[in-house]
Structure prediction request, 284 residues.
Amino acid sequence: MTTIETPRSGKIGSGKVAPKYNRSGSSRGNFEMIAWLFMRLSGIVLVVLIFGHLFVNLLVGEGIHAIDFGFVAGKWADPFWQFWDLAMLWLAMLHGTNGVRTIINDYAEKDSTRFWLKMVLYAATLVIIILGTLVIFTFNPCPVVDGVQLPGGFCPAP
Amino acid sequence: MPTKPAGTLYRGREGMWSWVGHRITGVVIFFFLLVHVLDTSLVRVSPEAYTAVIGAYKNPLMALGETGLVAAIIFHAFNGLRVIAIDFWKKGAKYQRQMLWIVLALWLVTFAGFAIRHLSLALGGH
Prediction:
């Protein structure tokens, strides 16, 4: 009778064993497949969004020298750039969070370590996404405190 | 007596090293992103706070840092498209090695273009 070798284990009797999977399984349905697909779809969109972001902010005109409060105010006066930056924020944060989640799952072997690293990750993600979204939508190009305009604001001529 | 795990099928050469590069650049970009959202959020504090912090970015050291970051972004972007091609194109796995060299060639051209423009703006006289 022919002996069929175990894949990845080398010759039987070589003393090598296949890596053993010893984590408890979970019943998360097809979450991992959705996450896998999301990485690819968001990745394509992010290439366009981020290359566009870098081009417009760093390579056009006088590049980085042009970036100040007025530059941001000028961009966010346009719903096009508000939406662009919002899409970039959400997609990049979710894409990056899922990437780091994968890395934590790969390298943190203790159940509790893995759990807490991911909790810290998700907390950071939540804070950054909420903060960024609020900033984009509550941005005021001409901030006024107690009836006095803050210096450096982007105010229309009176 | 079993001693140590056997090697996996996926070890060494272009496949593994592109994967390592993808992970490292991904983590670098993610941590930058956290900081970048925080610094941009300063526009909500005050115009002066934002302009002051952005002003601190405008020095030669940060210009080099930005250039390195963009090098990581360009690699991650092009190699990510290669990963998509490996997964969805039926000949993707067969040509993964050739595609990595295409990625590296595109990376070099794109990065050179960016670096020349950005560094001459950032370091040049204003």
Remarks:
- The CA atoms of residues 78 and 97 of chain A lie 28 Å apart.
- Helices of chain A lie at 31-59, 69-76, 79-107, 111-138.
- Chain A is about 60% helix and 5% strand.
